[in-house]
Amino acid sequence: MSNVLLDAADMRRTLGRMAHEILEANQGGEELVVIGVLRRGWPLAKRLAFAMSQIEGVQVPCGKLSIGPYRDDRPQSETDESDIPFEVTGKRVVIVDEVIYTGRSTRAALEALFHFGRPSKVELAVLIDRGHRELPIQPNYCGRIVTTEKGETVVVKFNEYDGEDAVVLEPSPQGVTG
């Protein structure tokens, strides 16, 4: 049976808090850009950038980053759907992903990002930190830390893809445990 970790209202409040934390830590939105990891980090990044733009009164640019060609734990994808229509060199970049698990997606995102330029600073914002890290990577901003078993799955649903906003913890398939 699934366990709802965040409903739509929880997600909205959490993103608002994270937007304020990012702006406070960066002393505003100047020179700040947000880049979402495809696929589900992208809608999260758009929402964070929009919230920060509303709060700060300056546009916070938002791009999307394809990490498929940079994964070391999956078959490499030749498809690069990255779209970063602004300069990253010298900018403070916030990489956004919906869930951090082993840290391998973030490592791939860092490698992909540096093909676009040399940021002055890179930070990581995630909606859910479910633990089980394999690499020494920690988010700077986290919506919620959730204790999970290795076989469980955290599903982040977005209105854009799923018709609803929610974060759900799916149980391990029978017989599979961490």
What's the short story on this structure?
The protein is an alpha/beta fold and 178 residues long. It has helices at residues 8-25, 41-56, 104-113, 159-162, and strands at 3-6, 32-37, 62-65, 92-100, 121-129, 141-145, 153-157, 166-170.
Description:
It is a single chain. This protein is α/β, with parallel strands linked by helices and 178 residues long. The chain has helices spanning 8-25, 41-56, 104-113, 159-162; strands at residues 3-6, 32-37, 62-65, 92-100, 121-129, 141-145, 153-157, 166-170. Strand 2 (32-37), helix 2 and strand 3 form a beta-alpha-beta unit. Helix 1 (8-25) crosses helix 2 (41-56). The chain is globular.
Largest sheet: 5 strands, parallel
- Mean pLDDT, to the nearest integer, reads 93
Q: Briefly note the structural class of the backbone.
A: alpha/beta
The unreliable regions are: none
Fraction of helical residues: 25-40%
Please tell me what the overall shape is: globular
Rg calc? 16 Å
How many E-type strands?
8
Q: What string gives the helices and strands in order?
A: EHEHEEHEEEHE
Number of helices: 4
Cross-sheet strand order for the largest sheet? 3-2-4-5-6
